């Protein structure tokens, strides 16, 4: 007989791991492209880049790992949701790119991040296992 609880638990573990690794990997990778990311953030008008970039790296790596390991899921999901919203607003601002060839790409990233943000809100409703 099919055990739905086991399937749900396995699906949650796999999905949570993929979502957490997404943030961890991109946060960690920013260490190796720090100058480029900093320049992009300055170009996009992100305030206080000398503070916000290190904070972004810390948030993505630490809370990404929390998600992978199923720790503090409510706060991790909410913190990563807010970060994703801010990244969308400042970095993937397709509405400011009328006529720019990168507009479609930024809109695609915005929509992708919005879906990820939705997943983070769902994750934030889960109790720790």
Entry summary:
Helix content is 76%, strand content 0%. The protein is an all-alpha fold and 129 residues long.
Q: What layout of secondary structure does this protein have?
A:
Blueprint: H1 4-29, H2 34-43, H3 49-69, H4 73-91, H5 103-124
Helix pairs in contact: 1-3, 3-4, 4-5
Report the average pLDDT across residues: 94
> What characterizes the major β-sheet?
none
Taking all Cα atoms into account, the compactness measure Rg is: 16 Å
- Helical segment tally? 5
Oligomer: single chain
Cα end-to-end separation: 24 Å
- Which percent bin holds the helix content? over 70%
Structural class by secondary-structure content: mainly alpha
How many individual β-strands?
0
Give the topology string: H per helix, E per strand: HHHHH
How does this model look, in words?
The protein is mainly alpha-helical and 129 residues long. It contains 5 helices and no strands. It has helices spanning 4-29, 34-43, 49-69, 73-91, 103-124.
